[in-house]
User: Fold this.
Amino acid sequence: MDAANRLRPLLDAVHDTAAEVRGKCPDYFADRPLRLDRDLLGRYGGVAGGTLARLIGDTYGLTVEPADGPEALTAVDRLVAERAAGGPGAAATPAAVPPEPEPEPELTAVPPEPELAAVLRSVAAAQQERDRLDRAAAERIAARRPERTGVMGGVLHYAAAGPRREDAPPVVLLNALGMGPALWYPLMGQLAEEHRVVTWAPRGTAPGSRPLRVRDHAADLEAVLVAEGATACHLVGWCTGPKVAMAFHRRRPDAVRSMVWLHGSFRRTDDTGGREPDTPYERNLEELCRAVAARPTMADTLRRIFDGGGGTDPAASTGAGSDTDPDTDPETDPHRFAEEVLARPARALDEELRRPFATGPALAAYARQLLDYWADDALAHAPQVRVPVLCVGAAYDRIASPERLAAAVERFPDARYRHLAGATHHSMHDRPREIAGLLTAFLRAVEPIGAPRTPAQL
Assistant:
């Protein structure tokens, strides 16, 4: 194995983690080193581990320090190690089949320093070109004129990418209430290489729009399939999307080939015993929605009150800020701060994630739909879902409870759970290649494609 191939898992881990962190906190590495365990460096660099650390830093604009033992590593440092050791940074839980262990890199002779530096520059150049192509694919999708289909009460515009194929059902990305399609473009660019992919902004949250129920969103999904000429589909539900998927499955079980819950929420508001593992965001958001529903004319005032202080604004969890800022609190504990940075959304999402809270009328429409959504007990239908289900949770999902999602696995006859190390609620934007690889592997494993399994096969 040549040096470039041997070092690629480590260099990809450094590159991907540095890019993700810089997207959330551009100055994170300005005065903070990236620490790599000496054993990890030794695995890839042999006796030249210290030299390798310095050259990695020079290549990626970092200060890289060898560290002795895992206790010295922050959450950011551990994410690099997990990605380098296990590939995509996704760890299987006991509810999932453990992945095959990665083979140990072949420790051949380490090239001289000038040659090693050239190898690192070559790999970094290839990574930059890959990133450029990924951005270009997402930008092409964003620039396309949306497709249109008639729905009850108007016209639905939806984004689409990838060729239509008679032998392959489309992948439908069921968006969260209040969100536009922009968060999905990076993932769509990846999936469109192999699949027809569609998504849209759920209706009903625009100011003045008529009230919609979960079943109405399921009807919109059916209208999109008709427009696409598709009789079946794979469903990927993000955040509130899984309940729409379940409502569609109740009306058209024959049309669903598989389901993926990407940081999905099955939250209900009838938890009188307080047993549900809500996130603080979910509790704060319900408080806001109920206040707005009780006094819709006060929506703008309530929005401003929640936005104004106390850390109670649900929108604050979508990237508006944080309790600790490196520019104002340089003495922040490095371990706590690393976790706080990983838990943030990318800054590029700030405007998009504030959409439901942008105006009083928008918030009133959003609150109305969320309360209806929370009243729906979608998991009551779970035993009737006979197609494969993949639940994907994130270590730093502070929007939708990952604990609730993990528990939901037990309700489906054929489901598994994957946990993404260091990821957030917005992994499809932050890690499109990783998520696309996870989804593509899952879809390829659905055998025979879309045929429901009998109890004997489960």
